[in-house]
Amino acid sequence: SLEKYIPMPGGASFIWGHQKYVFESSAGSAYTTWFRTLNSHVLQIRGALGKPNILIIADPLAINHIMIRRIYQYREHLFCSLVIPFAPFLIDNVLQEHSEVSRPRIERLLGRSLGWVEGENEHKRMSQLVVHSFSWESVRSGAHNIYMAANTMLQKSNGCVTLDITKIMQQATLDAIGRYAFAHDFGGGRSDEANCILNSWRSMAEVAISLSGFYVGFTKEHVLMRTKDMQGLMLIRRVPILNRLPLRVIQSQGNVRRTIHAGIARELLIRNKDLLAQMSDEDVPEDLLFKLSKCIAGSETTAQALSYAIWELAKNPPVQDRLRAEVKTISPTFSFDQVQGSMPFLDAVTREILRLHPPTPYMERNAIEDDIIPLKYPLVDQGGKVHSEIRIHAGQTIVIPIHSVNRLTTSWGDGDVFRPDRWLEKDSLPLNEIVAGGWSSILTFSDGPRICTGYRLAIFEFKLFLAMIIDGFQFIDTGLKISDRYASTMNPVVVGEEKRGPQLPVTITLVD
Ligand code: HEM
């Protein structure tokens, strides 16, 4: 149990603890609000169905301790780390870094991957195999593939239409990753394989964000699926054996893996000689799967970041015009060096979008052993005693709310405001000692040894796509109210139309 001096918000339900409220709130916003109202960088919330209290940590020193200093003492649980299917022999290994909920899900979705791999040595060995493919050098030399994917997307859209940009972005980023990493053609993100992968993600997200399921679903199969998420995990958390039931919604998670296995991996085996050269014989099939699946998971998050960017620019016409004016100075050629080095405002917009709308809003960890976590911002108990560390026991669940950390008032001041200029102004950025770290002092790609492998690729892809789209198209706000729902990653929904699943409609016209 957690110490009493760790602040807890009021309003917990007897049955659902605070988790129902977190689930119903726009993703990330409940924690962000509580940190402010309780004036704390650490809090505890009540778990649902009698689950022990959960520790929510936004304190920079504590995050550094968990993500860097003691990373292998905390089990991992996050969508983006579903990647890199590997090493079946490790599945029953001792360390058990993944929680009882996420492990079976990860296996069904993408096989036994880097995200699945247990323990320090094995994780490092697997990471070495992929690190080169995602260096800046590799991204630069593969830039033309992303350019081609962006071009394919632009040729297919014209006129003035209101459309769901998330769908288009998902097709485009999947197409880009296919070209970049595997010389594989996903047909502009519209081939049968692409449809199978995108439909699998979508059907999972639809179930995951369904509100009605929260109440009635614990006896229904579609809700068992939805409970895969951290916020909705109540039943599977309490009864992990449910993961094994042959229910359609649970077992359909294997679609992505099957598509990759049956179609793309075999083709790659023939094409990708470099990759084969790096591997021992017994690694081959799973290693190829790993390459594909990590990229596919990453293409989804990149698509979400791009969708939020277009929506934010639609709501802020002066920022949109200023960005387009900068892009016009280099258009129509978009070389790697131009995109990375000649557009400071594009760079500022990129950082601001990734700060404000992190596609993975939470990371969850379980402590493998007892620990003492140091705090930058000490807590004071009712007797006035100052506590500059927290004691936790093995098994403690910890949430690192990336969304809240990226908006902390102590670090960012007006953290909820979309203001790209903060990245260009002297003295507007937080000092190193008060941020948790990570790329660009934000936690969007995590930090430490398990920082997102594909973050350079994601950043370049984001910039290139955005530059090319804004060069040719104008975005107009529909005025619809958008809320964010958590379904492994951030999913925008139209308020009042939640039943239609994730969508982000924006009106798009050709630039004069
Ligand atoms: C905007 C896009 C992306 C975001 C926001 C993102 C975010 C993240 C985060 C937060 C983690 C850490 C998970 C944890 O430790 O719990 C992660 C891990 C990972 N990501 Fe991404 N990611 C993105 C795109 C990509 C892309 C494009 C790829 C590959 C092509 C990729 C590959 C990976 C891999 C392999 C890991 C696991 C690293 C490890 O455990 O060593 N990601 N990502």
Automatic annotation (TrEMBL):
Amino-acid positions noted as binding heme in the UniProt annotation, renumbered to this chain: C452
One Pfam match: p450
InterPro entries, per the entry: Cyt_P450 (IPR001128), Cyt_P450_E_grp-I (IPR002401), Cyt_P450_sf (IPR036396), Cytochrome_P450_monoxygenase (IPR050121)
UniProt family annotation: Belongs to the cytochrome P450 family.
Classification via SUPFAM superfamilies: Cytochrome P450
PANTHER family in the record: CYTOCHROME P450, CYTOCHROME P450 12A4, MITOCHONDRIAL-RELATED
Keyword RNA-binding: no
Domain of life: Eukaryota
Pathway recorded for this protein: Secondary metabolite biosynthesis; terpenoid biosynthesis
Protein's name in the database: Cytochrome P450
Lineage of the organism: Eukaryota, Fungi, Dikarya, Basidiomycota, Agaricomycotina
Keywords, comma-separated and alphabetical: Heme, Iron, Membrane, Metal-binding, Monooxygenase, Oxidoreductase, Signal, Transmembrane, Transmembrane helix
Any one GO cellular component localisation term in the record: membrane
Principal subcellular localization: membrane
